[in-house]
Amino acid sequence: MSLKLYFAPGACSFVPHSLLETAGAAFEPVMVKLHKGEQNEEPFRSLNPRGQVPVLVEGGEVITQILAIIQHIDARFPEQQFLPRETLARTRVLETLAWMNNTVHPTFTHVFMPHKFAGTPEAQAEVKAFNARVYAGYLGEIEALARKAAERGRPWLGGERLGPLDVYALTLLRWGGFAQIDPASYPALWAHVQKVAQQPGVARAIERERLQLNLYKPA
Description:
CATH class of the largest domain: Mainly Alpha
Helix content: 40-55%
Structural class: alpha+beta
Order of helices and strands: EHEHEEHHHHHH
Radius of gyration: 17 Å
Shape: globular
Distance between the termini: 49 Å
CATH architecture of the largest domain: Up-down Bundle
């Protein structure tokens, strides 16, 4: 069956984008330009009425939500072992992925798009500043995960194979630049993210999306 991934450069869709490239999958990448509002227009809305990326289409089936897409890609390419095969290890990876997606990611949304959560410029500035501090703390938790993996001699956050935790960690640390967070202030995570970026499949996704890894600009 044919695979088609709808992605937006720099968005969380970078995670399945990188996994498909790493798997050597034959897929069609379709860019959705969020800054132009294409997520709110047809034909994308007919695929995902919520107007969100990523969207994975396989044959006639449309799959939304990043955790569902990751599990589908893992099942589709089991030889890659993107998710651990041992039950508890797999559960722990999914536990952390869910936290990244339902807690860390939405906190960044409050930093990047405070107008969605407050009506006045003053309130928006407060929302942005408050959530930037919270976001920095969450990155500290991911820093601890990277440090723990390094201390235990594990090459990747989820175990012995590159997986979605690694690519999501890259995405979240990269976003920190928009919150005036220097990635170098998380040395274990920054080192890990740079290693992730050098993996061939991830590097191809970075090139297609034209991403800069370090977005931090000192004030």
